[in-house]
Amino acid sequence: MIYCPQCNKPLEEDSRFCDACGCPIPHTAPVSEAIIPPPMPETAQVFCPNCGTPNYAGESYCQNCGTPLLTNTVESTRETDSSAVLSGIPAKEKKGLPRIGFLIGGAAAALITLVIILIAVFSGKKGNDGKVAALYLKEDEIYYSALKNKEPLQVTSRFTEDGYRSYYASYYTAYSEDGKLLFYPDKLESGGFKLYYRNIDNPKKDPIKIDSDIDEFQVNEAATLVTYLKDNGDLVQYNLKKDDKDKLASEVEWWRVSEDGKIIFFRNDDNDLYVIKNGGDKEKLDSKSRVVHVNSDFSCIYYRKDENLYKRSLSKNAEKEKIASDVSAVLRVYDTGEIYYLETGTTTSRGSYMDYVDEDMTGLTSWDTAFWIRETLSEDSPSLTVSSLYYFDGKKATLLTDEYIDYKTTSYDYAAVAFYTAGGKIEKTKLSEIESSWDFETMIDKQLKSGEMFLAVGATLSSLDEYENPTSFTFEDEKTVYFIHDEDDDSQGDLVKLTLNGGLIKKDETVQSDVYSYWILDGKVLYFTDVKGYTGDMYLGGKRIAYDVKLYPIDYSEDTKALSFYTDWDDRDECGTLNIYKGGKITKIADEVADYFVLPDGSILFLNDVSSRGEGTLYRFKGSRSTKIDDDVTEIIHVS
Fold first, then answer.
1. N or C: which end of the chain has fewer CB within 10 A?
2. Angle, CA 37 vertex, CA 577 and CA 256 arms, to 5°
């Protein structure tokens, strides 16, 4: 059973449109290592923290693997591992903006709703330096500039007139590892797009068309194979050297391909799970399966079937291994084999709502509002669903609690999870203070679901009950955890640093009060205070860097140690002053900047002086000077 993202009506699994409101029903797209997911502008989505599958905002559990989802949009954007979050990329994909080997898909998250985005730019090693060039939109077409005083090259011929062309351009383009090839879409249509590639620095060579009606694609590291899913559900692999296409499967709903393009997992619309290894025939792994996790080296896959959790290794003669039964959800699987999972929960009554009321009123009659409030609260009973949370270390499972209610967050790098359990003392409310039985019941339901919070590192538990509503967790390493608690009405609270030893809390310290958001950069804490709207004062390592800083985008380069950001942002004109902070000094790049993008060498492309028609001048800032690239530019394409 699936649900319409528009009206929430239950639908059959294979529904393409809602029969109640006509809303298109998306098919989940695979999300793998080094993936840039494209936005869906109409409806916000959230990524599954475990398997990466995009889900519509409002879903409580991942529609692919059953993992609980962060459902609060603002909190989920602040809840990621923020040490290196990429713009538009789930936090676990924090190896840098990939030039190649990433998936481009049509059913991924609308991250235009994000409140905070931190972009991490990595230049990498020799041979993986990224492409120092400019891609941009002009006159509804994609243009390319090598930044070497050469005439810009018009890449596409009939790209799109769609209002979301900037999203298509940024998320459907990729450079090869050596920067010589550009993979890009042209002639975007409702049934997909035509995919091309070309030697971008040799304009005399014609582009080569790979295929039409493509929904999503992934290029391997060597830029020799392109694996893609077509609009009709065909999974195809294209060989660049042979200029040859090989249809791998039909009616594909989910797929993942290794970075070298040699191992492909996929699931069809009957939920049958397959693998293709090294160009061989497809091998059926199991039926009626829902994928939970694929190891980063593609050595094994984890999946659920009939409420059982299985592991299947790709080693020779390996059989599926049953890990647990009665599994209702998986919080996270790690490449180490460690897993947090839930057993099927039970729903129990928690007395009546009057058990949480102090009856301070007597002699009530049917003429009194309080009389009917008391009657309603006496008849109604709160219920609570609790589950058993287990930690699996790769060999055996350990019960952490049988009073699990909800999860807060998990670490992406090592086995750790913060979660709520049932319980916690609920103070009684005087009957005379209750104005609405509905509001009171809603309040009690919320309090019942916000019991004691725990932090588990492996199987070791520590209570976080002394902190008021901890949120925005960052797991810096196995010994250091940050979070914000005791938030006020402006969502600003105390930033706390926990020091752990053997998974237990040994020390806590308040880093700063009245913090809205923060990140860890090279061991220093970058944070915002005094936030009004989407601007605030920015600090690094306890030192104030600037006032009136726009919260997003913030760009930090690990190589150049430079921080780029906007100040004096004008919401009406959608532009601000672009600055760079490096070596303790702020340099103003330009005023009235509408967009910018940091290239792998640390230079910055920025769009300036945008007219009422949305056209501006594109510049490149390098060193201490800005050089004009082109006029009448509408968008910078953010691809390395």
1. N
2. 155
The amino acid occupying position 606 is F
SS3 281: coil
Decide if 580 contacts 604 (C-beta within 8 A): yes
Distances 335 to 11, 95, 311, 535 between C-alpha atoms, Å: 34, 16, 12, 38
Distance from C-alpha of 605 to C-alpha of 599, rounded to nearest angstrom:
7
What's the mean pLDDT in 228-236? 96
Q: Work out the burial of residue 207: count CB atoms within 10 Å of its CB; fewer than 13 is exposed, 13-18 middle, 19 or more buried.
A: middle
For 232-248, the DSSP string reads TS-EEEEETTTTEEEEE
Place of tokens 């998974």: 503
Residue found by looking up tokens 């726009």 in the block: 550
The residue with tokens 């919260």 is: 551
Q: What is the 3-state secondary structure (H, E, C) of 114-144?
A: CCCCEEEECCCCCCCCCCCCEEEEECCEEEE
How, if at all, do strands 118-121 and 554-557 pair?
A: parallel
Strands 192-199 and 208-219: antiparallel
Residue found by looking up tokens 């290894």 in the block: 277
* Contact predicate 469/487, CB 8 Å: yes
Local structure of 384: helix, strand or coil: strand
CA gap 595, 607 in Å, rounded: 5
What is the pLDDT at residue 53?
A: 58
Q: Which of 116-125, 234-243, 246-255, 480-489 has the lowest mean pLDDT?
A: 116-125
* DSSP conformation class of 62: -
CB burial readout 19-39, b (16+ within 10 A) else e? eeeebebbbbbbbbbbbbbbb
Cα angle: 275, vertex 278, 284; to 5 degrees = 20
Tokens (6 digits) for 477: 């390493």
User: Which amino acid is it at 609?
Assistant: D
Residues 472, 484: Cα–Cα separation, whole Å: 6
CB 377 within 8 A of CB 441: yes
Which distant-in-sequence residues (6+ apart) come within 8 Å of 575 by Cβ? Answer: 569, 592, 593, 594, 610
> What are the CA-CA distances from residue 22 to residues 15, 19, 25, 131, 423 (Å)?
11, 6, 9, 42, 43
Q: Which residues of 235-272 are buried (b: 16+ CB within 10 A; e: fewer)?
A: bbbbebeeeeeeebbeebbbbbbbbebebbbbbbeebb
Residue 600 near residue 134, CB atoms below 8 Å? no
The single-letter code of the amino acid at 2 is I
What is the Cα–Cα distance from 517 to 80, expressed in whole angstroms?
A: 11
Stretch 546-553: mean pLDDT: 94
**Which residues are registered as beta bridge partners of 42?**
none
Q: What whole-number distance in Å separates Cα of residue 168 and Cα of residue 184? A: 10
Look at residue 324 and give its three-state secondary structure. strand
Nearest to 636 by CA among 597, 610, 602: 597
Tell me how far CA of residue 371 lies from CA of 202, 377, 515, in angstroms.
Answer: 83, 10, 45
| 223 touches 200 (CB < 8 A) | no
- The mean-pLDDT minimum among 86-90, 295-299, 531-535 falls in 86-90
Q: Which residues contact 468 (CB under 8 A, 6 or more apart)?
A: 485, 486, 487
Q: Hey, is 178 helix, strand or coil?
A: coil
134-174 per-position pLDDT tens digit: 999 998 899 999 998 888 999 998 887 665 566 678 788 99
Listed residue (559, 503, 576, 569) closest to 536, CA to CA: 569
Q: Are strands 339-349 and 174-175 parallel, antiparallel or unpaired?
A: unpaired
**What token pair was written down for 538?**
């920015």
Residues 188, 48: Cα–Cα separation, whole Å = 28
